[in-house]
Specification:
Layout lengths: L14 E5 L4 H12 L3 E6 L2 H9 L5 E5 L5 H14 L5 E4 L17 H21 L6 E5 L23 H23 L6 E5 L14 H14 L3 H4 L1 H8 L8 E4 L9 E4 L8 H15 L6
Parallel strand pairs: 1-2, 1-4, 2-3, 4-5, 5-6, 6-7
Antiparallel strand pairs: 7-8
Helix pairs in contact: 3-4, 4-5, 4-9, 5-9
């Protein structure tokens, strides 16, 4: 069976928060959830772009300012969400940056690690108590096949201060997304209602690769119609992870085609390194220390 957006069940009565939802995969994810009746919050860095995106969607869609590079912004966004909603059914950690030049966040974190992992780690921790009482609630975190490429958790230099690799830093952040999901699921298991799931879009034609080195970016531009799929297809693994009743906590969904590059979503496996429980737990402890956010599980 080829799972498509038509397989997303009725979402009426559910509240979904989608980060980075003004464009690309996040937009398509939010669009489908709103069309199925969910109350969708577009959590975006640029509120004006968020409003323009919301205007292109059908349903109950609101915009929330969220800059994942700033822990102050993450805390402010979480506080505003708590004022707006008494419950959250779906938290979809979708936003991300890729292959950026060496930059740091206002809190001093390497940009890719700070945005892709630490920002979402903090947001999830600050909102989790709104999901825990809700039957069927899920935290879905979007990783990447990049978690296999030059990827490791460099505890001796998490912020890449000694040397910097765009590809290595991205790989670390995406590996961290998976390790966060697996460790979160282990902690959630005793609570019963909420599960943590991961997904990846394969190679999708989005703005994410705009920071790639020129030598890589040019061929990608030429070959994009052949080697990538539309954002609407790339969003399907996330949507399946978020809505398929058969999904179990700790699972990972990606495209079903060759090498998980394109295709309809199916259950996939991540790299052997991502399943290292000792590293998962160490990363969790370091992430709590760096963000100052302690989870209620």
């Amino acid at each position: 069976m080829k799972w498509t957006e038509r397989d997303v069940a009725d979402q009426r009565g559910r509240v979904a928060v989608v980060t980075g939802a003004n464009t690309g995969l996040g937009f398509e994810t939010a669009r489908v959830l709103a069309e199925r009746g969910a109350s969708v919050v577009l959590a975006v860095r640029d509120a004006e772009k968020g409003k323009r995106a919301a205007a292109r969607m059908t349903g109950d869609v609101t915009v929330l300012a969220l800059d994942l590079t700033s822990l102050d912004s993450v805390r402010a966004a979480a506080a505003e969400l708590r004022d707006r909603h008494r419950r959250i059914d779906l938290l979809i950690n979708n936003a991300g940056v890729m292959y950026t030049p060496k930059l740091t966040t206002p809190d001093g974190f390497e940009l890719q690690f700070g945005t892709n992992h630490l920002g979402h780690f903090a947001l999830t921790g600050l909102l989790l108590d709104l999901l825990l009482p809700v039957p069927g609630s899920r935290v879905v975190t979007v990783s990447s096949t990049g978690h296999r490429i030059r990827a490791a958790i460099h505890f001796d230099d998490l912020q890449w201060e000694r040397s910097y690799s765009r590809v290595g830093a991205y790989g670390q952040s995406k590996l961290a997304n998976l390790m966060f999901t697996y460790e979160l699921q282990r902690r959630l298991a005793a609570h019963g209602n909420t599960v943590a799931v991961a997904a990846h879009p394969g190679m999708s034609n989005t703005e994410l690769a705009r920071n790639s080195p020129a030598i890589v970016r040019a061929p990608l531009t030429w070959l994009a119609p052949v080697i990538t799929q539309k954002s609407s297809m790339g969003a399907l693994p996330t949507l399946r992870a978020a809505t398929d009743p058969a999904v179990l906590g700790g699972q990972y969904y990606g495209p079903g085609g060759r090498n998980e590059i394109k295709g309809h979503p199916r259950l996939v496996t991540s790299s052997p390194a991502s399943y290292d429980v000792e590293v998962q737990r160490r990363l969790w402890a370091v992430s709590e220390e760096l963000t100052g956010v302690a989870f209620p599980v």
